[in-house]
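step=encode ok
step=design start
structure_in=
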């Protein structure tokens, strides 16, 4: 077997079903080995999108997704996706090609030090410079990528090494069993003591909880104790947010009703908090202790928050209010197992994180770690491949969509039933909001868009343009019913950003 064949054999034994990427001439030996394997190669239109897809596979399965590129520009195009996986805690292996290392006739053409480039962005990076260590390095890459805290790993396979024969037996199996550290009995008893002595306890559910299947145990704990819970953006969906114990999501950094609840608390139970996400509250130690809990304040906060979220949700104004868009998404995804929202990064992410109540784990895929634009559509492609029976909606801004819009062709080629909702404001809406909030003049953030209907149709997809408020929900319902790839262009009114987030919420009172 050649080194490339060993690599592919090891990927198969690790359970890899797909490799996403764009091959180059330095990958041809690996490509030939892949051709005769059980693994499907998904050719994308940009390497960055390939890594977003592979990382989403890792995020949803807990097993490292795999992406492929050639050397030089192919490898540099991977970098944003690698950082996305690393900061987001998504298990990932990227494999890059390289010029021959024993003898090359091309000098330094296209050669950069990819291993060193990947070092600060990954948990592990290595060159396979000896065929005899190929299997060992693949095992190690998967083990490191999938071990808590999960993240990105990288292997470089030079062109000449890929074609060399491997001498001796090849063992791709991992001897390391997954290990999850359990708390000591003393720690558990101390936690019980703190919970019992608190007056205003709150459970904070964050990103790490979505990586572990703890729903049953945590749900039982909340059901028994009735302690209210909040989530970070990447902790959405661990518990059913239709629960009366749900107080909200920390979509904003401060000044929301959920922050009133956290600031009132004298005990916060952090479940899976990841330091990559911004801390949702800075606790002030409290000396108050009680033998029984006082949760009435939280009930008032929850009622106030739910009332405020639903304001303007039935507005007939056009362009559509964010509140109405979120409310209609809630109606379409109302069931406990009805589908997946894959969000790109933009102002709408805050509106959805705050106002959309997730029903199950990983049903709202958003990025509050690297928070990169362009990931929404590729992540939706991967989510649909893994969940062909579910409705999958990519919610993207016009800016983020154009960064990965070429992957519409990938979705069409894969024959996916996928709906893309473009929230269109002809600009970089979140930065415009920050600019206005800082009292600065609107500058440098506006642009023009193509005709998204014709753009979608040029890919063989169906394009729909929303022209009045009442058209969005029926358009979404019809797109899911009809199947295929649909692109819906929906204008959005972001004047609500300042009205709600800068004025209404900052003028609120926590004394309810």
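sequence_out=
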């Amino acid at each position: 077997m050649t080194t490339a064949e060993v690599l592919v054999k090891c990927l198969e034994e690790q359970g890899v079903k797909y490799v996403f990427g764009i091959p180059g001439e330095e990958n041809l030996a690996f490509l030939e080995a892949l051709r005769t394997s059980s693994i499907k190669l998904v050719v994308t239109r940009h390497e960055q999108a390939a890594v977003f897809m592979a990382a989403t596979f890792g995020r949803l399965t807990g097993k490292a997704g795999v992406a492929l590129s050639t050397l030089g520009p192919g490898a540099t195009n991977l970098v944003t996706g690698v950082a996305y996986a690393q900061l987001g805690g998504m298990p990932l292996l990227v494999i890059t090609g390289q010029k021959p290392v024993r003898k090359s006739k091309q000098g330094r053409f296209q050669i950069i030090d990819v291993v060193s480039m990947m070092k600060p962005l990954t948990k592990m990076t290595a060159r396979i410079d000896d065929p005899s260590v190929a299997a060992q390095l693949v095992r190690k890459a998967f083990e490191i990528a999938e071990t808590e805290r999960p993240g990105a790993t990288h292997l470089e396979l030079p062109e000449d090494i890929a074609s060399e024969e491997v001498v001796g037996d090849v063992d791709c199996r991992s001897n390391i069993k997954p290990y999850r550290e359990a708390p000591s009995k003393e720690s558990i008893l101390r936690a019980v003591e703190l919970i019992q002595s608190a007056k205003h306890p709150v459970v904070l559910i964050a990103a790490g909880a979505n990586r572990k299947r703890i729903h049953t145990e945590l749900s039982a704990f909340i059901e028994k104790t009735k302690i209210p819970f909040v989530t970070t953006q990447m902790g959405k969906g661990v518990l059913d947010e239709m629960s009366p114990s749900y107080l909200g999501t920390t979509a904003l950094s401060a000044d929301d009703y959920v922050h009133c609840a956290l600031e009132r608390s004298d005990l916060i139970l952090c479940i899976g908090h990841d330091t990559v996400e911004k801390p949702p509250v800075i606790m002030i130690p409290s000396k108050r202790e009680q033998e029984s809990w006082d949760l009435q304040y939280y009930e008032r906060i929850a009622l106030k928050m739910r009332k405020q979220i639903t304001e303007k949700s039935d507005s007939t104004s056009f362009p559509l209010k964010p509140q109405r868009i979120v409310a209609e998404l809630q109606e379409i995804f109302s069931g406990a197992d009805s589908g997946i929202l894959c969000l790109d990064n933009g102002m709408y992410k805050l509106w959805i994180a705050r106002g959309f109540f997730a029903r199950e784990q990983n049903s709202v895929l958003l990025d509050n770690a690297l928070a990169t634009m362009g990931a929404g559509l590729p992540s939706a492609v991967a989510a649909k491949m893994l969940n062909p029976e579910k409705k999958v909606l990519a919610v993207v801004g016009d800016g983020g969509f154009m960064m990965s819009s070429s992957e519409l062709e990938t979705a069409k080629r894969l024959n996916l039933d996928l709906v893309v909702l473009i929230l269109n404001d002809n600009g970089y809406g979140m930065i415009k909001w920050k600019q206005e909030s800082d009292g600065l003049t609107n500058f440098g953030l506006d642009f023009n868009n193509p005709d998204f209907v014709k753009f979608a149709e040029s890919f063989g997809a169906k394009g729909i343009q929303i022209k009045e408020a009442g058209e969005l929900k029926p358009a979404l319902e019809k797109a899911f019913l009809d199947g295929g790839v649909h692109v819906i262009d929906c204008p959005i009114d972001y004047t609500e950003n300042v009205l709600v987030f800068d004025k209404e919420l900052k003028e609120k009172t926590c004394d309810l």
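step=design ok
step=annotate ok -> The chain has 21 helices and 16 strands.
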